[in-house]
Design brief:
By secondary structure, the chain is α/β, with parallel strands linked by helices. The chain has 4 helices and 6 strands, in the order αβββαβαββα. The relative contact order is 0.19.
């Protein structure tokens, strides 16, 4: 569902991207401006302590990082620390809500450089 929302606003979206032994659930590239912006979204069915460690480790390789969880986990989504953003997924209505906006990190070029040698596959 998050994938469809991002594709709907014109982003290129790839799932399960493996980089340096780390699997990124979703990578979205926004090529609409003069510079490609990289969004990384960790999509989970429930929150775990490990999730915060995962998303914080993505900060060094993206421009924006989000965690996406079912809307029932709204309290956890409010506690996600900056600079990470949070998305609530409402399965019944097929909607995605931005609960907290991610801060611009400016590190997306690092991921793009690592991926330059091999094409991404959706």
């Amino acid at each position: 569902m998050v994938r469809r929302v991002l594709e709907g606003v014109g982003m290129e979206v790839y799932t399960n991207v493996l980089v340096d032994g780390v699997e990124l659930d979703l990578v979205a590239l926004d090529r609409q401006g003069g510079r490609t912006l990289v969004y990384v979204v960790e999509v989970k069915s429930r929150p775990k302590r490990k999730l915060l460690e995962q998303v914080l480790s993505r900060v060094g390789m993206s421009d924006y990082v989000y965690v996406a969880l079912p809307a029932r986990d709204y309290p956890f989504l409010l506690e996600v620390p900056p600079p990470i953003g949070s998305l609530a997924v409402e399965l019944g209505s097929r909607a995605v809500y931005e609960i907290r906006r991610a801060s611009y990190l400016g590190n997306g070029r690092r991921l793009l450089e690592k991926l330059r040698s091999r094409p991404l596959q959706g």
